[in-house]
């Protein structure tokens, strides 16, 4: 088990693209979107994962993530509740952190969100120029609710 501590922001410009070191295509769906826990299947390029996350307490929650066979992930996608999310994730170094910027495609376009993982909730960090409003505590922007 590990703790995930992250902050999430709306993105206000595409300047992150020029700063990105790499990008990945992600497909993800939810087997459970309960308020107390989510169970997600995710395909990142040519790898697959099953992730269980606990309820958010502020910007923190427990997270368990496991690699799974691609064939299993493809089958599990057909069992998902609601839409399967498609997005391109850009990895952007800034201020000593790696920001993950997600460009959603399909009916969630033109939504773009940026996240940064922290070692603790009170850690200070520098905001890059492409981020706007902090939506960390706004459940509308949780991937499981999109």
Any key phrases for this structure?
single chain; 146 residues; mainly beta; eight-stranded antiparallel beta barrel; 2 helices
Question: What do you see in this structure?
Answer:
The chain is mostly beta strands and 146 residues long. The chain has two helices and nine strands; from the N terminus they run βαββββαββββ. It has helices at residues 16-19, 70-77; strands at residues 2-11, 22-34, 37-44, 47-54, 60-68, 81-94, 97-104, 112-117, 131-134. It has an eight-stranded antiparallel beta barrel. A hairpin with a 2-residue loop joins strand 6 (81-94) and strand 7.
Briefly summarize what is shown.
The chain has helices at residues 16-19, 70-77, and strands at residues 2-11, 22-34, 37-44, 47-54, 60-68, 81-94, 97-104, 112-117, 131-134. By secondary structure, it is mainly beta.
How helical, in percent, are the residues? under 10%
Structural class, from secondary structure content? Answer: mainly beta
Overall, the morphology is globular
What's the gyration radius in Å?
15 Å
The total of beta strands comes to 9
Order of neighbouring strands in the sheet with most strands:
1-5-4-3-2-6-7-8
**Number of DSSP helical runs:** 2
Order of helices and strands: EHEEEEHEEEE
Enumerate the spans where pLDDT stays under 50 for 5 or more consecutive residues.
none
Question: Which helices and strands, and how do they pair?
Answer:
Layout: E1 2-11, H1 16-19, E2 22-34, E3 37-44, E4 47-54, E5 60-68, H2 70-77, E6 81-94, E7 97-104, E8 112-117, E9 131-134
Antiparallel strand pairs: 1-5, 1-8, 1-9, 2-3, 2-6, 3-4, 4-5, 6-7, 7-8
